[in-house]
Amino acid sequence: MGHRRWLREDDPWRKRKDLFDGQDEPRRRPRTRSGEQIDELLKNWKECPPPGKKRKAPEPLLKVWKTRSVFWDLPYWKILRVPHSLDVMHITKNVCESLLGTLLNMPEKTKDGPKARYDLQSIGIREELHAGRPNDDDDDDDDDDDEDDEAEDTQSRRKGKKAKKIEYYCPPRASL
Predict the structure, then answer these.
(1) Pick from 130, 144, 134: nearest CA to 172
(2) 135-175 pLDDT, tens per residue?
(3) What is the torsional sign of CA 37, 38, 39, 43?
(4) Residue 176, helix vs strand vs coil
(5) What is the per-residue pLDDT across 4-28, written as a single tens digit (0 to 9) for each?
């Protein structure tokens, strides 16, 4: 069977040959290799022979692989701790939903909101898309009103009331 070798060495299931294939499992689990070690093994990988042709006996370390994944060409692949956990179907779905939701301005799916606009502002890119309050352009002396609003919000939160929602202005997206 061979899968019991992944259990701890003192696990009682390793000795239960009557429940499995009639043999003890004396082998230890294989040594865990890092991505760099696997990349080093696969550097000299030759293409697989066409189907139907006999292959020469593979080297002992390479006999566990039949093909070399294209992901090994990615520069960061060898440093991932769990590279096999990428799920292409869900990644594709999430990227498509984000793009379509943003481009079609779907309320539940769009990634284009005040928080995203503030992220652009904090990074310092795309100034035409930065978010701001509706009357940020006015240079009136309304600073006292802002302080009063903040104090009122703080007091209402202390009393258990919800703070009033501040509307933010997001300038329209630039045309593509």
Answers:
(1) 130
(2) 445 455 555 555 566 666 555 555 555 545 556 555 666 55
(3) positive
(4) coil
(5) 778 887 888 777 777 777 777 778 8
Determine the Cα–Cα distance for residues 174 and 176; give it in Å rounded to an integer: 6
Bridge partners of residue 169, in order along the sequence: 132
List Cα–Cα distances, 34 to 39, 41, 95, 135, 176, in angstroms.
Answer: 9, 11, 29, 55, 43
CA distance 93 to 73: 23
- The H or E element containing residue 35 is helix 35-42
Q: Which amino acid is at 90?
A: H
The domain spans of the chain are 3-79, 113-176
Q: Which pTM value belongs to this model?
A: 0.30
**What is the distance between the alpha carbons of residues 60 and 51, in angstroms, rounded to a whole number?**
21
CB within 8 Å of 24: residues ≥ 6 apart: 14, 15, 17
Residues 6+ apart with CB under 8 A from 50: none
